[in-house]
Amino acid sequence: MKERAIQLTINGTAMNLTVPVHQTLLDTLREQLGFTDTKYGCGTGECGACTVIVDDKDSLCSCMALAATMNGRSITTSAGLAFDGLNAVQQAFIDQTAVQCGYCTPGMVVKSTSLLRKNPNPTEEEIRKELEGNICRCTGYDSIVKAVQQAAKSFPETDAKWDNAVEVKAGVNA
């Protein structure tokens, strides 16, 4: 089996890994590294349960990316958003009861965080459009949209605190 040595920064911690060239980022996160907050849903990029943030800006379905192609990249899972307490999106999901069975929640939180980093004041239509690729079978989405709207009210300050913490943490581990 062909393998490749890669370096990833996951939730602010730099890691050197050897991965099979055919292994997905999702399998690397879950099976090799134990980041089970990133969920396996469909395996085809349709449900969004495995969503992560790449390089602190864009979201990506980790089941659709080969880990070997992520060399040098920074990956943030839902657990990585909870530096020094819950971030605004995570807290809003709790406040708005946007968590039912919880299976889609990590992907929804990550995708919502990515949205708010790009657009800190999205309309309801923009929120719904951004979350189209994330499937929830329990909530009906209304509480999820309300959670994102709530988070938008305090997100820039909260996320800036988190971004600064990641920079400090990454510097220590470099």
Folded structure, characterized:
This protein is 40% helix and 16% strand. The protein is of the alpha+beta class. The protein folds into two domains: 3-80, Beta-grasp domain (Ubiquitin-like (UB roll)); 82-162, Orthogonal Bundle (DNA polymerase, domain 1), CATH 1.10.150.120. A five-stranded mixed beta sheet has the order 2-1-5-3-4. Helix 2 runs antiparallel to helix 5 and helix 3 packs across helix 5. The radius of gyration is 16 Å and the shape is globular. Residues 164-174 have low confidence and may be disordered.
**Could you tell me the number of beta strands?**
5
Q: What percent of residues are in strands?
A: 15-25%
- Number of helical elements: 5
The percent of residues in helical segments reads: 25-40%
Multimeric organization: single chain
Q: And the CATH topology of the largest domain?
A: DNA polymerase, domain 1
How many domain regions? 2
User: What's the CATH class label of the largest domain?
Assistant: Mainly Alpha
- Largest beta sheet: what is the strand line-up? 2-1-5-3-4
Mean pLDDT: 88
Please trace the helix and strand order, writing H or E for each element. Answer: EEHEEEHHHH
Biggest β-sheet: count, sense, barrel? 5 strands, mixed
CATH-scheme architecture of the largest domain: Orthogonal Bundle
CATH superfamily of the largest domain: [2Fe-2S]-binding domain
Uncertain runs: 164-174
Radius of gyration: 16 Å
- C-alpha geometry: globular
Distance between the termini: 30 Å
Strand-pairing-aware structural class: alpha+beta
Protein name: (2Fe-2S)-binding protein
Organism: Pontibacterium sinense
Pfam family, one: Fer2_2
GO molecular function: 2 iron, 2 sulfur cluster binding; metal ion binding; oxidoreductase activity
